[in-house]
Design a protein that fits this description.
By secondary structure, this protein is α/β, with parallel strands linked by helices. It contains 17 helices and 14 strands. The structure holds uridine-5'-diphosphate-xylopyranose (2 copies). One uridine-5'-diphosphate-xylopyranose binds near residues 152, 278 and 340.
Length: about 475
């Protein structure tokens, strides 16, 4: 099928290269000419596994680039809208880019066209897109508007697209459902996975063929907002439980493991930390809350999810103070700038927000991140120093803070780290280590929702630390290590 994708940001670019890999003819449209020129040269603007290979494989072949929305839309059977929907001051989703695309497409309809919402949008957006297109001259029977929300996560975007739990196709006519079925047939039939060039199935990905869930357009729009809100709620729940654990001396990792082993709950997205960030959860929660308000519903549960998330950063700051007393003039080594491991994205990153708060308290910050330092340098004050590796960052620092869950930062040479630091103090906002291991290496180790660990000789003088004899650390189920 010939498909135009408008907006080649995270969602648009990944969707475009993946649909090309499924065999479709794809044109990626964007009004950012510099971004398009870079893509045409084969440069990948985001840090995503498999994206460089897929771009190289299809660039100039099944994947083309254009700034000409009208021409691109005219030549295609389906137009996917993947432009930004940033939050307004009030927290609503700003849909002005979506509207301008709808207006532009309505003028270039020479044959039937399916317009597909790919960006995350509030329920009712498909209705508005239809109204705008009719208002701008499109004939009622010459197009349909459908919703096909994306659930990809940054860092695993390509495999999340190709190995999804489900594909949601929200459309209100048989004609549009048929087209969405055709577009995803290579996945739903399993045909794509038997092809030699198919992107390999990642560990932990669903083994079943992805079901195509046909719903109304409104239901599909709500599935996206509600899914993100539920996932964020799960994280805030885990963080709130971690706070209770801290007060009673229990172990949040054990507690969340125990909760998650109930198949009705599930273990994923129950990792306590310094709160969720990123370009999606924070803005989608605000947008969903606004949608609820417009429906006359005071969805206070969402307020609480947001409040716990913000409180989690304050709790972490208090923990740093309880480890170091005053922060003015203290040199702090920070591992992690991205909003999560595996990406260079710092949008709404809890790490960046915490660094800004620490700088305000007069601390010196020296940071390291495997991928996000270039973007962080643009966002953070010049006072922040950057180190080539975690050990250089730790050299002479009063303490080490772990703010992003990078796998490589969970396998550090602890003896070397202890040597580099001025004081063996680690405040871990992502629970990357076990307290006993850190204590063995002489660290006083603060984490989220778990007792502070310290070498035996220090236990008792450190608030929240528990003597070894009384400690029982998180392990897997009986017989599982
Ligand atoms: C997008 C949506 O913003 C978000 O709601 C959804 O959750 C995920 O998809 P993302 O892909 O990260 O997020 O957006 P962004 O990186 O901002 O990319 C949007 C692209 O659209 C940019 O490349 C921008 O240049 C382009 N754009 C924007 C257009 O081509 N035309 C416009 O009118 C506006
Ligand atoms: C999210 C959704 O997962 C995805 O389906 C949607 O399409 C876009 O938004 P993403 O923003 O890439 O994806 O990140 P995700 O992996 O969901 O993590 C979001 C935030 O929650 C990160 O800051 C992460 O560190 C945090 N998180 C995640 C936790 O604190 N604990 C967890 O258990 C899981």
């Amino acid at each position: 099928m010939r498909i135009a994708i408008v907006g080649s940001g995270y969602v648009g670019l990944v969707t475009g290269v993946c649909l090309a890999d499924l065999g479709h003819e794809v044109v990626l449209v964007d009004n950012d000419t510099a971004k398009l020129a870079a893509l045409q040269r084969g440069e990948v603007p985001i840090h995503e596994k498999f994206l460089p290979e897929l771009l190289a494989r299809h660039r100039g072949g099944r994947l083309r680039f254009s700034v000409d929305l009208a021409a691109s839309a005219r030549d295609c059977e389906a137009v996917f809208i993947a432009v930004g929907t940033p939050p307004t001051e009030q927290g609503d989703a700003d849909l002005s880019y979506v509207e301008s695309v709808a207006r532009d497409v309505s003028g270039s309809i020479s044959s039937y066209k399916l317009v597909v919402e790919k960006s995350t949008v509030p329920v009712y957006t498909s209705g508005w897109i239809r109204r705008i297109m009719l208002r701008n001259g499109a004939k009622a029977d010459s197009f349909d508007v459908a919703s096909n929300p994306e659930f990809l996560r940054e860092g695993t975007a390509v495999t999340d697209f190709l190995y999804p739990d489900r594909i949601v196709a929200g459309s209100d006519t048989e004609r549009s459902s048929k087209i969405l079925r055709q577009i995803y047939e290579p996945l739903t039939s399993g045909r794509y996975y038997s092809e030699a060039h198919a992107v390999p199935r990642p560990e932990g990905a669903p083994t079943h063929l992805p079901p195509l869930m046909l719903t109304s357009a409104k239901s599909a729009e709500l599935i996206k907002h509600a899914s993100n809100a539920f996932l964020a709620m799960k994280i805030s729940f885990a963080n709130a439980v971690a706070s209770v654990c801290e007060s009673v001396g229990a172990d949040a990792k054990q507690v969340c493991q125990g909760i998650g082993m109930d198949a009705r709950i599930g273990s994923r997205f129950l990792n306590p930390g310094i709160g969720y960030g990123g370009s999606c959860f924070p803005k989608d929660l605000l947008a969903f809350r606004s949608v609820a308000r417009e429906c006359g519903l005071d969805f206070r549960l969402l307020d609480e999810v947001i409040r716990i998330n913000e409180e989690q950063r304050q709790r972490f700051l208090r923990k740093v103070r309880s480890a170091l007393w005053t922060l003015r003039g203290k040199r702090l080594a920070v591992l992690g700038l991205a909003f999560k491991g595996g990406t260079d994205d710092i949008r709404e990153s809890p790490a960046i927000l915490l660094i800004q708060a620490l700088l305000q308290e007069g601390s010196q910050v020296v940071a390291h991140d495997p991928a996000a330092m270039p973007r962080a340098k643009e966002a953070l004050p010049a006072a922040v120093e950057y180190a080539a590796n975690p050990y250089d960052a730790a050299r002479g620092a009063d303490a080490l803070l772990i703010l992003t869950e990078w796998e490589e930062d969970a396998q550090l040479d602890l003896a070397r780290l202890a040597q580099e630091l001025k004081y063996p103090i680690v405040v871990d906002g992502r629970n990357l280590y076990e307290g006993s291991l850190m204590a063995q290496h002489g660290f006083t180790y603060y984490s989220v929702g778990r007792p502070t660990a310290a070498p035996e000789e220090h236990v008792g003088s450190i608030p929240g630390s528990i003597p070894k004899a009384d400690r029982k650390e998180a392990v897997g189920a009986e017989g599982e290590r």
